[in-house]
Each structure stands twice: as C-alpha cells, then as structure tokens.
Amino acid sequence: MNSSALVLFSGGQDSTTCLAWALENYERVETLGFDYGQRHDIELVMRPILREKIAPLHPHWAERLGPDHLLDLSLISSISETAMTADIDIVMQENGLPNTFVPGRNLLFMTVAAALAYRRGIDVLVGGMCETDFSGYPDCRDDTMKALQVALNLGMNTRINLATPLMWLDKSQTWELAHKLGGTALIDLIRTETHTCYLGERGKKHDWGYGCETCPACLLRAKGYMEFIARNNIFTKK
C-alpha cells in the first residue's frame, strides 16, 4: 500500500468514487478542489458535505481522510469562454469537440496538484479522467496522463504517480465500483449529494441524482445508473 494520495475532488460522481477508491487503497488521503469560475459551482458547496458523509462509511476511511485544499484557478474562465464557464448553449464545435471542453483544464489541475503534493510529501495524484465514457476531451486520455506524469516528474525531480482508476470504465462500471467500495450506502450518497450536471440544476431529484436530464453529463449518468441497477438488481433509497 502506498502511503499517501491527493485526490482531485470536484464534488461530482467520478471524483467521489475516486475518493472512496483512494481511501480504500492509501494510508493517508487529502483532497484538492478548484474554483475556476465553473457554471456548475454548486459542486463547490457539495464538496465539504461529501467529505463529511463519506468518512463514516468505513472506520478506516475516517482514519485516513486528511485535509482538504480549495484553490482559486479563476484565470481559466478569464482566458477561455466555454459552456462550462459561461451561460451559453452546449453545442459541437468545428474541431469535433463539444464546447464543454475547457482547454488545458486537466493539464493545469494536475500541474497544480503535483506542486501541492510536492510540498505535502504525497506520492500519488488520483483523478477521475476516463477514456471510455467521455466527450472526446483530449486531456482525459490515458496517453495524455502518462505523458504528463513523465513531464511533471522530469520537471520536479520526483516519482509522483498519476492514478486514474476510472480510465477504462464506462459509467455503469463506475457505479459498480462505488458499490463494491461502499455498498448501497455509498451509492445513495453519490445519488443524493454529488453534483455532475453541467447546468448546475439541483431542483429535481431523479433516481440517479439531481440534474437537468438533458446535458451530456446527466444523460451519461442516468444511462449508467439504469444499466447498473438492471445488471445487479439493486434497489436504492428514493
């Protein structure tokens, strides 16, 4: 077991699953979030609630969960206008990417996380990047993360590992991993407290959680949940 991990923790489904995975696999776990002017800034409200509620799910999780860090990266929204940082419609662009893609976001997130990990003596960064269920974001690809790991370690003379436990899972398998880690208690926590909707909609609760039902994140989350429930015949709280 590695000694320590820093989880990029947004307050969404994927990062919460990654936090549970890290708490199960590392002796000390810290979390890092970013305020980058995101349209769905409700996720920043949910982060501390999730940290508080996830710790008691297993006694050793409570013992391992360390400090949280929240950093201001609002420069991202000042240098790019996307559907994640501005009140504009979600559309496909001429380059084949949806305008929910925030150029350089994950690259900057990991670079800042590595700098914090250096100071905190942490040797593993955990992110929820995924190449199976995604919108073609180039900074979510396995090759990108591997290349970035090499660059960061060369630039800081370290041996930091970038762990991406969801990289080859589809969304139903991500739900399944959460269930394996924390049972129906973690599934219910993800459903009721995490936020994934790009539009920041938190007015209506669905079986799979809160959201607008129409943005790409909601559609993916709902589809994955229904497949997970059907495959496992699991019933969760309403």
UniProtKB/TrEMBL annotation:
ATP binds at residues 9-19. Pathway: Purine metabolism; 7-cyano-7-deazaguanine biosynthesis. Pfam families: QueC. Binds 1 zinc ion per subunit. InterPro entries: QueC (IPR018317), Rossmann-like_a/b/a_fold (IPR014729). One of its GO terms (molecular function) is zinc ion binding. It comes from the Bacteria. Catalyzes the ATP-dependent conversion of 7-carboxy-7-deazaguanine (CDG) to 7-cyano-7-deazaguanine (preQ(0)). This is 7-cyano-7-deazaguanine synthase. It comes from Solimicrobium silvestre. The gene is queC.
